[in-house]
Amino acid sequence: MPAKFSRLSADDYFNGIRAGDRMILSRAITLVESTLLTDKAISDDLLERILPFTGQARRIGITGVPGVGKSTFIERFGQLLVREGEKLAILTIDPTSSKSHGSILGDKTRMDVLSKLEEVYIRPSAAGSALGGVANATREAMLLCEAAGFTTILIETVGVGQSETSVRNMVDFFLLLMLAGAGDELQGIKKGIMEMADAIAITKSDGANIQESEKARISYQNALHLFPPDESGWITEVLTTSALDGAGFEEIIGVINRYYEHMESSGRLSALRNHQKIQWLNDLIDYLQRRQFLATPGMKEALKLQEQAVLKGTTSPYKAARTLVELAWNV
Ligand SMILES: Nc1nc2c(ncn2[C@@H]2O[C@H](COP(=O)(O)OP(=O)(O)O)[C@@H](O)[C@H]2O)c(=O)[nH]1
Ligand SMILES: [Mg+2]
After folding, report:
1. How far apart (Å, rounded) are the C-alpha atoms in residues 207 and 37?
2. In a domain, 272, yes or no
3. Number of separate domains in the chain
4. What pLDDT is stored for residue 253 in this prediction?
5. Domain that holds residue 32
6. Which residues line ligand 1 (CB under 6 A)?
């Protein structure tokens, strides 16, 4: 095997991570992303060991449709966080990037100041690689970064699909970036994603866009009043921002700080962290079940056949799933 794929012992990963060794951190993240059984044995051991050293960071998710300005925002906003003394780890998940690698390259060029800072670690995830394990791999990467001493974890995710909910369930604070559009401000935006957000920032509020952004801000803020309040009593705030001139950055830091104060009062943050752990457990059950399913002899082939039958319309997805599960587990 080529040297870059060689594995260390759980001990060596652990010591390297605790010493803040970036190279070893990167190799450990590659390890937790791996679906090889031999890797899983080491990574389970490693995760067990680092767990007591996790949980001290702020976990922040940043989402929004491609092109809304997530990477550019993180590049500038991240510099402000670093000036405030944060050690910043950035994990990016882009389910569209596994085919072209285009977005990952784009992200790299868009974070070139951050990527040179000693206080910053950037890791694009190998999205789509693991069998439904993207959520787990991201969560585990986050925990490894915490154990390596990072104090803020930013997870950038594209505002589409299942990865949204997964990321929502592993972060404390979820920031939705939106564009001020012409016409109906709410068009095309899934209500579900807005409901998940702890704050919404209208991006690219600069130059000729400022007025439009302010209008969008008011309109979203009004729309949010129609949603039932979050169970913790937090009210989603809507702001405007520009990654070109940093407008709105101080306000966004203010919202995040207020959010943590709100959550830390009366034990809500620890309840939230408990919820994240339970979610992790359940995600792992789904993942392990699926892995076991696919490891059962003949199941990959059987799955292919049922997929074809579903596409031909000779069976329904529900019936196909039942057939496969019965076949795999005799249930
Ligand atoms: N005018 C303006 N353009 C921006 C701003 N933020 C990002 N952009 C541009 O919007 C495009 C998409 O940005 P990017 O950060 O890659 O979006 P992502 O796909 O959400 O990560 C790029 O061409 C950026 O230069 C901003 O605050 N103001
Ligand atoms: Mg991006």
Report:
1. 53
2. no
3. 3
4. 97
5. 1-53
6. 64, 66-72, 106, 110, 203-204, 206, 242-244
